[in-house]
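Class, study these two lines:
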Amino acid sequence: MTPAHRCQSYRQVATQTAPPGQLVLMLYDGAIRFLERALTGFSHTDPGEFHMTINNNLQRARAIILELNRCLDRERGGEIAATLNALYDYFDRRLQESNRQKRPEGIHEVLHRLTVLREAWATMLGKPDAPTAVTEPFALAQCATA
């Protein structure tokens, strides 16, 4: 097995066995990683690399954000789920716009806001009462098996 296959296998097992709150944290980490990679595209002088790096990584980040949005439990999550839904929709629109115009401003904005959400999520996971309070806005069993 090659190192790339081992890494992919590890990620798959980690995703399948992680607790629900940790899955959300992993999704945030993935979206942040792809946004950072998209920003590296602006340094490419070759037009093909420029467009491909930005587009491919923004598409991956958008897919993760759409998954986060899909996982929201709008019935049990109440106002928190509604607020996150609106934020994720806004993030998606900003990333689409950044991709279309090939401008980094929207990427920087979404990256900053996702980083703040990720840090808040990580902080909540570290508190003793977090598992119920943190996972309530998400139908995470649905995300874990999808």
The chain is about 80% helix and 0% strand. The mean pLDDT is 84. The CA atoms of residues 4 and 10 lie 10 Å apart.
